[in-house]
Amino acid sequence: MWWGDGGAYVVASFARTSDGSASQHDGQVWFVDPWRDTIELKLHFAYTPGDDDTDPDGPDNITVSPYGGVILAEDGEGVQHLVGATDRGETYFFARNDRNGSEFTGPTFSRDRRTLFANIQSPGATFAIRGPFRHQ
Fold first, then answer.
1. Buried-most residue among 7, 24, 90, 127 (CB within 10 A)?
2. How far apart are CA 76 and CA 55, in angstroms?
3. 3-state SS class at 17
């Protein structure tokens, strides 16, 4: 979860019918607005078992971008990415882990908004990605 835009963004990494879920997906992002007492589905990643590297799957960690939208750390199948999503729900690959098969974790922006920090879980490396970034 990440608090931003007056509410909480909540990530559901994936669902499979084999685990007892009613339907399958490769991830969702919900927005909980406590002031309006609402919950809204912001992003839905379709279940695509044969496509591990060209569409996002398994969103795990999230941060709200000061430039609009969110940044997600992917923990899915295949190559692992940082995935951006605009306020309009359009997704794009922001960064790719070509170092190894480990997932990205903990994306967060610096206080001055000019650096995005992200980690890869193994071997425990942290990356500082410098802007300039543009509004989405």
1. 7
2. 10
3. helix
pTM of the model: 0.91
Q: ∠ at Cα 22 (16, 27), nearest 5°? A: 45
Q: How far is the C-alpha of 129 from the C-alpha of 14, rounded, in Å?
A: 27
Q: How far is CA 26 from CA 10, 71, 113, in A?
A: 15, 16, 29
- Mean pLDDT, the chain, integer: 92
Nearest alpha-carbon partner for 60 in 102, 88, 23: 102
Q: Are 69 and 31 in contact (CB under 8 A)?
A: no
Residue pLDDT, tens place only, 64-116: 999 999 999 998 888 999 999 999 999 999 999 999 989 999 999 999 999 99
Bridge pairing between strands 2-4 and 70-74: unpaired
Instruction: Quickly count: other Cβ atoms within 10 Å of residue 56's Cβ.
Output: 22
What are the extents of the domains in the chain? 2-130
Pick the more confident residue, 136 or 21.
21
- In CATH, the architecture of 2-130 is Beta Barrel (2.40)
